[in-house]
Specification:
By secondary structure, the protein is of the alpha/beta class. The chain is built from 20 helices and 7 strands. 58% of the residues lie in helices and 7% in strands. α15 runs antiparallel to α16. The relative contact order is 0.11.
């Protein structure tokens, strides 16, 4: 993916003339801005279905240690003992001291860990393509709604994506510096891999990438030197360099995931168990309904195609063209240079899990959620490719470079506007391949995690407060039923709203639309939560049904 040497130099005044220090400063400024946004916005996100049990799991892991291993409830709680507890343990510790609510603390922590992921994508993009590509990778991932939308209230997939990204970064450094990588690369790889394993057993994929990268490096050395003795010595040095980070990774994993070390094969058992999990949850794709354990091969590739922003898809298209051009120019028999090796490993991290899904079709549901970890590597590849094209156009002619700059900035502005309009439901984003969010309605997954119920509950609270002010009299208490994950709504109830499970006594209904609640529960619609014309949640008044009839 190199540039043509016969292109003219770039004129002064272009972004390509900015120094690396300028781009590094810009990257730091963007990360600070992202942290500020997290601080301002984390309270807008609702409680998702998994958060209650995940919160309890974190408290159990903490109890496991504070009881000096006597309280073993974390080793058998639901099916969550098959997951690591990095996020939940950290949240449980923070909630011992946090002045915020339990779930507000978790959402703030999730947002901060998401920014840690943005920092990782910046570092990886910088390693692969230079300072400018690093900043572009940071921006592309920050503008990718599936990542940003999951940061705040997805306690497994979003932290796992950030941990896998940092593991990939240190893996690339480890391979690049082999056979004797630096201490920082070894320690960083061990800690990052341990944290990733301490969230999901799927991080074992990184060991495959490690072996593949080291194997290709040895193959390249043999092609150059034709010396088996040298290969043997290099292999021994590599082996010694691997032992410390692998031991460190195991120790970190064990700390975060007590069940993992109860038996040596437990992590592998967890990985295999989840891939073959029989579960009848229904999920949508392109207007068709499938069960989670019988998905078509194109399910994950399809969701990637329609949920990644157009600018990222364009960058991946450019990456493919540049890769084919590099293959055409490459001399057969030559080993990969270090830069291409890192790009190859990043492409493996982004594409190999998708290929595994196509071939094996493990259980998955809720759209792209379980494969969110492939999004950051794909954003890096797109950024490096767009950066190369940007430079080529500037070198070709300054007007071509300026035009590309305008188009790039315009796409970023449009994408940022769409995310602002979706807030805080960015995770329901769909691109224009399916007509955006409006075009995806009824055909693709929407607010499957009840995130909109918080906003609907606030609308109900405002409604009854306004009514009380207008009518006067003694304050009243109203009973509310929830269609959806009940905690996602009643956690936010003010004192004058009381949760009930009995439909007959409910004065109001709060419901999300993803399971078609609005077709089963009657009442007069008094509030509708929607984005781009698509209703996500409704509030219905049932108090006067006997007098006024039924309204929908």
């Amino acid at each position: 993916m190199s540039l043509k040497s016969d292109l003219p130099p770039v004129r002064s005044g272009s972004p390509l003339h900015w120094s690396g220090e300028v781009y590094d400063d810009l990257g730091i400024a963007l990360l600070v801005a992202a942290l500020l946004l997290v601080g301002l916005l984390f309270g807008d996100y609702g409680i998702t279905h998994d958060e209650a049990v995940q919160n309890e799991y974190g408290r159990m892991i903490l109890a496991y240690y504070t009881s000096f291993f006597q309280d073993s409830s974390a080793l058998e709680y639901l099916d969550l003992f098959h997951y690591g507890g990095f996020f939940d343990l950290l949240a449980a510790i923070l909630n011992l001291f946090s002045p915020l609510g339990v779930y507000e603390t978790r959402h703030l922590l999730g947002g901060v860990l998401g920014v840690v992921g943005l920092a990782g994508v910046w570092r990886l993009g910088r390693l692969l393509g230079g300072e400018r590509a690093g900043v572009l990778a940071l921006v592309l991932l920050a503008l990718t709604p599936p990542f940003w939308g999951h940061m705040f209230n997805n306690p497994k997939d979003a932290p796992f994506a950030s941990a896998m990204l940092w593991t990939l970064y240190y893996l690339c450094r480890f391979i690049q510096e082999s056979p004797s990588p630096s201490r920082s690369a070894r320690i960083g790889f061990g800690i990052a891999l341990g944290i990733a394993l301490g969230i999901r057993a799927g991080a074992l994929l990184m060991l495959f990438y490690l072996g593949l990268g080291l194997g290709l490096r040895l193959l390249g050395l043999y092609i150059r030197m034709k010396n088996f003795g040298l290969i043997w010595r290099e292999s021994l040095v590599m082996l010694r360099s691997i032992l410390m980070p692998l031991g460190l990774a195991y120790a970190v994993m064990a700390l975060l995931w007590p069940w993992s070390y109860q038996s040596p094969l437990n992590p592998l058992q967890a990985l295999m168990g989840f891939s073959t999990l029989g579960i009848g949850i229904e999920t949508k794709m392109g207007g068709q309904v499938y069960t989670a354990d019988h998905l078509p091969a194109f399910y994950i590739p399809g969701y990637l195609a329609v949920t990644l922003p157009e600018i990222v898809l364009a960058g991946l298209g450019v990456a493919l063209v540049l890769f084919l051009g590099w293959l055409k120019q490459r001399r057969p028999g030559l080993p990969f240079p270090p830069g291409i090796m890192n790009l190859f490993l990043t492409a493996m991290a982004g594409l190999f899990p998708v290929l595994l899904f196509v071939l094996m079709r493990p259980t998955a549901y809720n759209g792209l959620r379980h494969f969110l970890f492939v999004v950051p590597p794909l954003a890096v590849l797109a950024a490096v490719a767009l950066d190369r094209l940007w430079e080529m156009l500037w070198r070709l002619h300054h007007w071509a470079g300026r035009g590309f700059t305008i188009v790039l900035l315009g796409l970023m502005v449009v994408q940022a506007w769409q995310m602002a309009m979706l807030h805080p439901h960015q995770y329901i984003f769909y691109n224009q391949l399916v007509g955006g969010v409006a075009g995806a309605e009824g055909k693709w997954e929407m607010d499957y995690w009840s995130n909109s119920l918080r906003e609907a509950t606030q609308a109900l609270a405002d409604y009854v407060d306004n009514e009380q002010r207008e009518l006067g009299g003694e304050p009243k208490t109203w009973k509310v039923m929830v269609c959806g994950h009940a905690l996602s709504s009643y956690y936010y109830f003010p004192p004058n709203l009381v949760f009930t499970k009995e439909q007959e006594e409910a004065d109001f209904m709060v419901m999300y639309t993803v399971i078609n609640c609005q077709s089963y529960f009657e009442g007069r619609t008094i509030a509708k939560i929607q984005r781009f014309g698509v209703p996500l949640a409704l509030v219905r008044d049932r108090r006067y049904m006997a007098i006024r009839g039924v309204g929908r």
